[in-house]
Every structure is written in C-alpha cells, then in structure tokens.
Amino acid sequence: MRNRRVRGAVGWLAAIALVLAACGDDDAEPQGEADPDAEAEPSGSVRFLIAENFWADWSPYASTAQSQRRLERQIYDFLVDFPSGDPAQPEPMLATDWRQVDDLTWEFDLREGVQFHDGSPLTAEDVEASIELGSGFSGESAYSLTWIPADVEVVDEVTVRISTEQPFAPMLVELGQIPILSADFIAEPQDRPNGTGPFRLVDDQVEVKAMEANTDYWRDPPRIQELVWEFIGDPSTRMSALLDGSAQAIDRVPPEQLPALEDQEGVELVSATGIESVNLWVRPGRLPLWDENINFRRAVNWSIDRQPLVDSLVLGNSLAATSYLPTNTLFSASQEPAYTFDPEMAAQELEAAGEPGGGPEFELWVAEGFLPRGPEVVQAIVAQMEEVGLRPQVVTSDVAGMIDDIFSDTGTGAMYHLSWSSNGDPNAAAQVYSEQFAWYFGDEELQALIDEGMTTLDPGAREQVYAELQQHIWEQAWHVPLYNSDFTIAHTSDLSGVVVQPDFRTDFYTAELTE
Amino acid sequence: MIVRLALRLAQMLFVILAVVTIAFFVLRIAAGDPARLVNPPGTPEEIITQTRRRLGTDQPLLGQYVTFLGNLVRGDLGTTFRGSLPVRDAVLAALPNTLALAGLAVLAAAGIALLLGALAAWRPNGSLDRTVLGYAALAQATPAFWLGLVLVMFFSLQLRWFPAIDMTGPRSFVLPVVTLAVTLSPILVRTVRQSFIETQGEDFFRAARARGLGEVRLFTVHALKMASLPVITLIGLQLGFLLAGAVVVEAIFNWPGIGKLILDALGSRDFPMIQGGVLVAAIAFVVLNFVVDLLYRLLDPRVRVGAS
Q1: Considering the entire predicted model, what is its pTM?
Q2: Which of A4, A180, A276, A304 could form a disulfide with A421 if both were Cys (CB 3.0 to 4.6 A apart)?
Q3: Residues of chain B positioned with their CB less than 8 A from the CB of A240
Q4: What ipTM describes this predicted complex?
Q5: Closest Cα to residue B73, out of B25, B16, B23, B26?
Q6: Which chain A residue is nearest to residue B158, measuring alpha carbons?
C-alpha cells in the first residue's frame, strides 16, 4: 500500500486554510524563492537514488504511485503550495490569490507570464482541464478518492472558479496535490511531461529520470543544472553509491544503516516522522471472529508492545501509534487506553470473547523488501501474540503477491503489515477506513463521521468531528495501529537546500552544490 | 552437415520458444496484478479495469499469448508497464553490458582455474594442493552478494581504488568481474586439477617427461591443452549459473545489464520487460552453448572424428 500512497497534500490545516484563503495577497511571493543575490547560472549535477520503483507513466492523474508523485513535483507546479512544511501556511504558486465566495465556491487568480516547458503560456483553460480531470469530475482520476465532485469554470483569462456539490474542507490541501498540466497534454497525452515546474525531463528511461534546470522558470531558475532520479532497490548499493561519491543523495535509509551514516564524515541525514500509519490491517470477511467480536479485536491490540518495536527495530524518528490518525496529522490526538503488551488484559478480553484458548488460526502477511525491517517486526509481534495464546501464521511474500492476496476473491490472509500515507489533513488519513476502501467493516457511524469531517468548514466543529472519529475507531479497534514510520534521506555535505517533508516529498528547487 | 545444422537451429528455436512460453504463463499465473500495483488500494474497480485494458492484461490468457507471439515474430517486444517505454530498446541496450561482464568473468574464472588447477596438480596432496582445494571450498561457500559487498567496502570505500557502482569505464569492471569469477571458479579449479592429474598418467605425458622436458613446458604445452577441454565443457554447462549470478552481481553493482533489468521489473510485475529480458537471456544461452560446442570440436579432434 505504501507504494500507492493516497494523495498527499502537504498541509493539514485545511480549516485554518479556509481562513487564510480569504486573505491571499496579490503581492505575496511564494516561499522557497531563490536568493536575488544569487543570480548564478544553474550548475552541477545531483544524482538522487530512490528506493521505490517508478511504477507509473505520465498518463495524467492515472496513478498515485509515490515515486511518481514525488518526481512530478520537480516537473509540475500547483495552484497552491506548502513549501515551508508548515500546514498552516498555504502559499501562492500558480494562483496568486484566492477567496471562498460561499460554502461551495472558490475563486483563484492565476499568475501571469508562466510558461510550460514547451514554451506555451499557462491559461485558465489549462487550470480548468487539470482540476476537472484531477479531482475526478470525469470519473477517470485515481486522485478522486479524497475529493467530492467539483466543477471548474473559467471566469476570465486569469480567474477560475471551483464549485463543489458539498462544502469541501480540505480544498486547498487537495489543490496542493493536483499538478497543473496543459489542456493540450490532457487532451492528447504525450510521452514526455509538459509542466511549468523548475525542472524539465530530458531523458526518460525505465529506472532513470534525468532532468535539467528550467531556465525560463517563473521564479528564479533552480541552482543545480542536472537532476537525476534513479531507482536502486538495494539499500546497501544506495549507501555504497553515496559513500563512494557516485550519488549525492539517497532516500529511505534503512534503520540498520542509520548509525553508520550518522558517524560518517561528509554525509548528512535529514529525517522526519512520516505521515504514515503502519498498521496490521485486517481484511473484512477473512476472520469472522474479528468482524463480529470487539473483545477479540481488543485482545489482539493488548498483545503488542509497540514502543520496543520502535526503539529497537524501526528506529529513526518513528513513533509508536497513539491514534488512527498519524501523529503529524491535523487534529491527531492520543487515545486511551494506550495499548501495550498486557497478557492479563489480553486474557480478559479473550475470555470475554468466548475464546480463552486464543481463537482460531489466522494468516498474518508481511512483504519482504517493503517496510523497513518488516519481517523482523512481524516476527516480534507474532512472538508476543503467541505468548497471550493467539495463533497467527506468518506468510512472507513480495509486495505484488501481498497486494494480490488482499484483493483477490481467493485471498487467504486476515492481517497485513502495511502502511497508509496521507497528506496531513485528517480527511485523507481517515478515508482509508471508509466504505471506498477494502478495510471497511460496515461501520456506518464511522462512515458518517468521515463524511462529516470532509464537509465541515468551521475549524472548531471539524476538530470536534475528528476527535469523535478517533475515539470511535479506537474503541472499535477495527485494525491494529503500530507506528508512524521514519523517513530519512542522506546526502553529501556539499549538497544543501533539499526540502524533505513528512509526506515523503523531496524537492530540489532550492538545492545547490557547494565546493 | 546442413541437415545437422538445421536440426540444431530448430532445437535452439524450440528451447527459446519454450523458455519464453514458460515465462509468459508463469508470470501471469503467479500472484500479482500489475494494474493493482499502479493504483492505490481502494481505487474504484472501473479504474482498475481501465488500467488492465491499457496494459492489455484484461484479455484472455491465450489471446494475450497469441498477441505476444505475433508481436515477437515482428520483432516487437512491446512497451514497459512502467513508463510505456519500448522494451526492445531497453534489452538491446542492456545485453552488451551483461555479455561483457559475463565474458570477462568467464575469462577470469578460466584463468584462475588453469593456474590454480595446474599448481595443485603439480604435487597432488602437497601443501599447495591443499591450499588450492581450500580456496575452492571457501569460494564455493561464499555467496556472491556477500563477496560483492565486502569487495565494495574494502576496495571502493576504504582504498578508493575502484568505483562502488555503475559501469563507468574499465576500472568499474574489476569488482563485479572478480565477484562473478570467484563464485564461478571452484568447480573449474577442481576439474582442471583432476584433469591435470589424469593427464600426468597418460603415456604421451610420461614419454615427454622421459624425454627430459622441463616441468613448466610439460604443463603449459602438453597438459594444458588436455586440461582445457573440460573447462570449456564446464563453462558451457555453467552458463545458466553464470546468468543467474549476473543477476545478483548486477543488482549489487547497479550494473545496467539484463539481470538488473529483470530483477527490477519483477517487483512491479512489468510483464513485457521481464519477457523481453528472459527472451534475450534465452537467446544468449543457446547461442553461447552453440559456440561452446563449436569450440570443443575445434579443440578436440576426437569429437570431429566421432561426429563425422
């Protein structure tokens, strides 16, 4: 699941954004503006080795593969952006100003003088085509899962109006996820992407994406001339390349390599706690006792000591989960009881469930080469489960095999060690538990809260909705929250200005190489 | 002769067809739906269906196979699921890199085998022999991925003699070639040693020694030719092992060859790329086997006589 992240709008205070929306400043310059004193031509080459395959292609909005979304951020721009990483600060990007006309309508003033990589100017029609397709209005977008139907209207050459069928609280956050493409490209997609972003793609190979600086960028051009993203799946190879000087940056540094790299001269680490829920996800219908018996679910939750998993296996900036909304998500709040490894509580719950012997056997799936130390984490969990009498059977697979088992009618797994990454807004984090997804247990109260959270505009009222939602799902214990994972990249000391966000975004616009 | 050649050619084509057919069906029967991998879990089924249509995996299996064979005959290997790029370009670009790596590794392994085998056979059961056999046992027990990493740590990161990854020039060949050659060499060393020992018992060898020829000349002129025959046979037999080893070595050293291409494509169930890689590997395998057979005939007149 991690490889097909949900949207990721960076920014989480959609509600606060509503307030800020009304005061967008025409003269406001976006953050991340290059230093005016530094007018030097772009120079140098940066090779960035990523851990995730380039799953997707350039079909517009056809995939939410994380590697593709991260790559597209170098090539495309968005109406609004969150460059500081502060979820309370949406910044102008291709929109210079915006206002909420009423509960259902927003207007955006577009930046003038912006050019696509092919030299054509950005128009309101481009924005219209992008938002309509990206938001799922046409029903063809993989981004539509966290949107509600929206219509886009061109008001004039530099103004667009977006109308939604219902109030849509995370509007700005979600707009920060939809790249603006040219209407021509959307009508007739080409092999080569045509964006307005700081880098343009010049060489497109299966595992290597080479970009060069867009010297006609509407902001100052980037400071590095060549940016190469390359997939190398083996973490040891990535580390060797960094230490050898063959690469300037690598991502997804695995826990076991952190100590070595921390002590390494000439290497710097940048870490964040990812907006990612790593859970044991339970597939409805596969383990009837789980579906029907809340005490059994709670017994499983009482059988796992999360903190030692974080301290000894996952490491880095990972945090033990205290809510179904990741810690860095807006309105996330720690829930009670704080589940830990408690054999007595587990035994009590099993007794209440009518299964003092531990209940039936069930398959617990884990993928190799996926989540850091996934198999080790699951082995530790299984040992604790067995101690309280539960009967998990570990099945180890690759990612593709596990995804297949989840969705296949003949799948046999009950629990899956997987992650779900969102964008900082509680809507995207909560949607995974909704009826749109395979993890929904028919909990209508939960569905109502998810819907209410998406359509409640008042920040205070919205916070209350998500407080109720978190409490409800924690009590129901539909799944088994484990931790919010660490996201660490390493780069050479001569590279600076790389922006890393908890949603795994890694931007090189402000990056530069020094002597 | 022409009939024999035609039969051999037909045999080679059959092997290639069998390999790509098995790869085709195993990939599709094995777990893993590519359309699921490029979409988030929970994506509406209509979008998954659209993706399958775009990838061509919505067609009946037999229909997909017929299309695949039809395209293959036209030399069209299709486009990758990832990025929609031409598979043929990718595999043809990668093939020379794997052949160069494997070819040099074979040469190096053969060199190691002939040298160590001769030294060991010079005084069987002597200290040198036991040392060589010890090397063979150690090399056989050493996994390629471990050896590759150790070589990188020492020669790349500590001494800075060779690059850690990538194919960037002559120096970049050293570590991957050594890794592959060392893992290939044990069986060759043992065979060459045995062959040298047996050759010393042959009449022609004893006669040569009785004529007073020096040991060096005896081994390098008279015994070498005999001992090299099983090396060539073994290399032919070990081609499969060599290609499999190249997958691991290419992954460790980020070598832009067929092995890495297949490995990367497997994780995302990029069927066209895997099939293209397997096809090229199969062709390389049967052609090289053919070349080995020809070499053997050239080197051993008895085979030619037997055949005629």
Answers
A1: 0.83
A2: A276
A3: 149, 152-153, 156-157, 164-165
A4: 0.78
A5: B16
A6: A244
